[in-house]
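Propose amino acids for all 106 sites.
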C-alpha cells in the first residue's frame, strides 16, 4: 500500500496554485475542519462536554489534488490523469482523532 506523505513545508506557491486550480478553492478552506454530522440524526456530533466534534473531511477533488502534488515531487512525469487512476485502497492517511472546537470559556 502506498503512503501519501505531504510535508507542508515542501510545498511551493505553484503547488498551492495547482491545488486551487484543481479544487476550486484555497487549500486552507478545502481542508478545514468541519463539524462531524451524526448519520442517524443529521445533527452535529458533540463531545461529553457539549462541544462540537470536528475533523477534516476531504472531497474527492482535494484527494486528487493532494495525490497529484505529492507524487509529482518524486515522479515529475506523474499526471493528473495518473492521479485519477490511483485506487483509494493504495492511500493511507494519518487521520488522528477528531478534534473538538475550543471552549470559549477556557
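Proposal:
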Amino acid at each position: 500500500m502506498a503512503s501519501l506523505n505531504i510535508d507542508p513545508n515542501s510545498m511551493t506557491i505553484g503547488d498551492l496554485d495547482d491545488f486551487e486550480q484543481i479544487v476550486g478553492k484555497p487549500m486552507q478552506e478545502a481542508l478545514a475542519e468541519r463539524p462531524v454530522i451524526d448519520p442517524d440524526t443529521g445533527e452535529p456530533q458533540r463531545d461529553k462536554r457539549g462541544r462540537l466534534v470536528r475533523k477534516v473531511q476531504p472531497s474527492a477533488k482535494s484527494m486528487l489534488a493532494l495525490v497529484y502534488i505529492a507524487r509529482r515531487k518524486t515522479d515529475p512525469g506523474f499526471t493528473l490523469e495518473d492521479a485519477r487512476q490511483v485506487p483509494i485502497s493504495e492511500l493511507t492517511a494519518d487521520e488522528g482523532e477528531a478534534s473538538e472546537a475550543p471552549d470559549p470559556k477556557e
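Residues 8-88 form one domain. Strands lie at 33-35, 53-56, 99-100.
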